[in-house]
């Protein structure tokens, strides 16, 4: 998250950058997971990866516009999303994603 930002502003920025959606409704924090993944920032330093899950609603009939980093998108159940994310993210994170189906959104 950038300095002087909030989680909601950061979420909106990510939705805008990744999907081309300019507004969201009912944004809610669901969970934060501190992973063991370390990201090098230079030869002598690294930072930890904090994974945050938020829920939100897109305006009806929103049109998705992918940026150059993406080739496709899809809507998945929490269980299917967790399965697809398991190749890249730790189990502690995907276990939390699965719990989305048990929570009122």
Give the topology:
Elements: H1 7-19, E1 25-42, E2 45-57, H2 78-85, H3 91-98
Antiparallel strand pairs: 1-2
Helix pairs in contact: 2-3
Along the chain, the helix and strand elements come as HEEHH
Helix count from the secondary structure assignment:
3
User: What is the approximate shape?
Assistant: globular
Number of strands: 2
Integer count of domains: 1
Q: Give the N-to-C terminal Cα separation.
A: 24 Å
Strand share of the residues? 25-35%
* Share of helix, binned: 25-40%
Biggest beta-sheet profile = 2 strands, antiparallel
Rg on CA atoms, Å: 15 Å
Q: Spatial order of the strands in the main sheet? A: 1-2
* Rounded average pLDDT: 87
Structural class: alpha+beta
- Please mark out the parts with pLDDT under 50 across 5 or more consecutive residues, or reply none: none
Give an overview of the whole structure.
This protein is of the alpha+beta class and 105 residues long. It has one domain. The protein is 28% helix and 30% strand. It is built from 3 helices and 2 strands; from the N terminus they run αββαα. The chain has helices spanning 7-19, 78-85, 91-98; strands at residues 25-42, 45-57. Strands 1-2 form a two-stranded antiparallel sheet. Strand 1 (25-42) and strand 2 (45-57) form a beta hairpin. Helix 2 (78-85) runs antiparallel to helix 3. It is globular, with a radius of gyration of 15 Å. The chain starts with 6 loop residues before the first helix and ends in a 7-residue tail after the last helix.
